[in-house]
Amino acid sequence: MWFFARDPVRDFPFELSPDPPEGGPPGPWVLHRGRKKATGSPVSIFVYDVKPGADEQTQVAKAAFKRLKTLRHPNILAYIDGLETDRCLHVVTEAVTPLKMYLKERAEAGGLKELELSWGLHQIVKALSFLVNDCSLIHNNVCMAAVFVDRAGEWKLGGLDYMYSSQGNGGGPPRKGVPELEQYDPPELADGSGRAVREKWSADMWRLGCLIWEVFNGPLPRAAALHNPGKIPKSLVPHYCELVGANPKVRPNPARFLQNCRAPGGFMNNRFVETNLFLEEIQIKEPAEKQKFFQELSKSLDSFPEDFCRHKVLPQLLTAFEFGSAGAVILTPLFKVGKFLSAEEYQQKIIPVVVKMFSSTDRAMRIRLLQQMEQFIQYLDEPTVNTQIFPHVVHGFLDTNPAIREQTVKSMLLLAPKLNEANLNVELMKHFARLQAKDDQGPIRCNTTVCLGKIGSYLSASTRHRVLISAFSRATKDPFAPSRVAGVLGFAATHNLYSVNDCAHKILPVLCGLTVDPEKSVRDQAFKAIRSFLSKLESVSEDPSQLAEVEKDVHAASSPGMGGGAASWAGWAVTGVSSLTSKLIRAHPAAAPAETNVPQRPTAEGLPTPAPTPVPATPASPGHWETQEEGTDTAEDSSAADRWDDEDWGSLEQEAESVLAQQEDWSPGVQASRAGQVSRTSNLAAKSPESDWSSWEAEGSWEQGWQEPGPPEPPLEGTRLASEYNWGGPEPGDKGDPFAALSARREAGAQLRPDSWGDDNWEGLETESRQGKAELARKKREERRREMEAKRAEKKAAKGPMKLGTRKLD
Fold first, then answer.
1. What is the per-residue pLDDT across 586-596, written as a single tens digit (0 to 9) for each?
2. Which among 115, 142, 512, 691 could disulfide-bond with 272, CB atoms 3.0 to 4.6 Å apart, if both were Cys?
3. Alpha helical stretches, state H, 86-201
4. pTM, 2 dp
């Protein structure tokens, strides 16, 4: 029977790359690229082929094999595996590149920064300090060829072929026999006796000086060139001169050299080195120190090398989240580093962390995720969004913190394109109905209407028909003026989603009622919307063949492009209402005609300046919410839609003045006396017990249908038509807004409609003034007091006075 020996090289779990060798240090070793057969992960393989008659060189190679296998230090080349046979030696290490080749590649790409060089030299000196002070070993081969760089830009010390013990055991230094390496020997070794060496580290520190010279100036031609520092930074020159001094006694210990370079103003005293040192010891740092470090890290990442951020900072951030208590503070640097990753790397490293973060109950983390969703939304696939992200995000609609509710509403603009039928048309609409009808924050109700107008094109045809008109009609009855503006603009932005019958019978009656709104900004937008819808109806009336073209999107399936034609003439931005209202309700430029002579509210501080437009002679009250005009500068509008992070989104967490203290303050008289008190956050009347959202179907549903408006009332005596009103000219100072009184008289006897805001009677707020209600309450209290006195008198007269000592039985 024949037995065949197995080839150990063939069974080795690593294989050499077919690419040509990269080269390596002068000597017996040849450096190859390689990979692990099981995982495909890249490695470096140093190969030595045993040659007959080269026993001394073989012994040197085997000694290097043993040293590399037993020495473990972060700054020494990391050993992974090895193979030793009679024919060859294979040493597998982490994937590295020779420093000489690395510097050449970086020089072609623009060169290395001093930050990178300072940290690289810091690592080599630290490795020498470990060998000399902790292991009592002399490297004896410090040069450019003995230094390697990994994928994170970390410098590693290799070339351990000629290492020997400083304590004398094991013999003296081995003979190199390689002229390229012997040129780095110090001058005191020229006699060959080595008697001039006074300190064990003197020779290695001389070679370190040669390495520093080559890093900044290129290959060393001869030893005499060391006297000219060349391009070595001035902060490093004094310490460099100590290394290449002729007297070996003055050459510093590696540990002291590091200490000198780390002194204030030293070459290695910079933010990059401090960051690396902190990351090396992050596991033993206190939680408070970690929090402070991650907070300051994002400011420095822009100046750090890309490879360092990807391969060193990112793993530490992921580890801090997985096993530490870093929390939301790591999100900003995490997403900043994520910009350096490819789409595949982002899916593998960042997305699993983001998905896990959404299930956190930490409010700070949730709100930061919502604020920065734009940075990672493109990497999320639809199944992940619907099954792992959206179920956690919707809890924000019910949060007691208004800031989280606001950010949750904003996030729907990004999530809507990836939501499935059930989440978008059922679950999301349920929460939007509740927010629009029951939320006590005016800006959030306004934002809900805004978002609905922007995502309307993603809804199914049946949902659009059932929801949009009812929702925007409800918004027009909101006591918060910007919400009413948002309702009008919602109709305008989704005009292509309504049939001509809906325009004539449902939308125009609602808009016509707003032409007498107390707020001029609402009236202005209402008139513009009415003209737009009337022109649409008129075009169909003139040419009935256009009906199919006009209604092509009404019954079409959901499509992101259907809402893209939302009229830019509508302004679609209410300045100062909230960050979302001022940013996201900008439609793309469309063919709809632009209206120019519309007053413009002064831009709030921190918000983008709108395009200049002609202003009427009568300026609008500064306390009223006015809308931005976008028709005059379409270029600004088209670019503004992409500037998500360039503007101030604001926060509902900041305290601001309330729009009005109580609901009755919405009467026209009180509005006139409180002009200028409208702020971004509106604290309306206190929440009633009925507003706990336990049954949204009963009070917050959009399925209550539309009620046909009643017959028009005859115009009151002295009433002017809208066409007769002097929109541009000044009004006499003693006359108030003619629409305020007209609105109060018109709504006095109106009945609540079924699609009004639940149990709250907003129309009553417009019919009674504060003075009238106070007088009515006083009269009621007086009548009640007289009734109680009369009852007491009757009771006393019927029973008579009680005698002393008697007991009252009844």
1. 433 333 333 33
2. 115
3. 99-108, 114-129, 179-182
4. 0.63
